[in-house]
Design brief:
This protein is α/β, with parallel strands linked by helices. The protein has a single domain, classed as Rossmann fold. It is built from 4 helices and 5 strands. Strand 3 and strand 4 form a beta hairpin. The protein is globular, with a radius of gyration of 17 Å.
Length: 104
Amino acid sequence: MEDLASPECSGVDSKRILPIATNESVGSFPSRLKINKKRQEGNPLIKYIRNVVFEWDSEIKSDFECSRNCGIVYLSAKYHKLHPGYIETRLKDLSRYRIKVFSL
């Protein structure tokens, strides 16, 4: 039986090693994830983002941007209870994204 995690099956170049979490693009590897610096700078969950290159970007409308078409909003349950209409406001901000993800 073939090892489905092997480089041959996954199409991954085993000689190419991607860096572990950093706040800058590295060499020829473009960033894969953008994080809104204004909104997420103090978020304790940021330290758990690993094995993906990311960059801080204060210009994006979402909290996290996976691609030009995918925006993610992180909202704590405590904040939602205090400000229940906030989700609607943020949803309007995400109108340019085809895929909208809310993490609560």
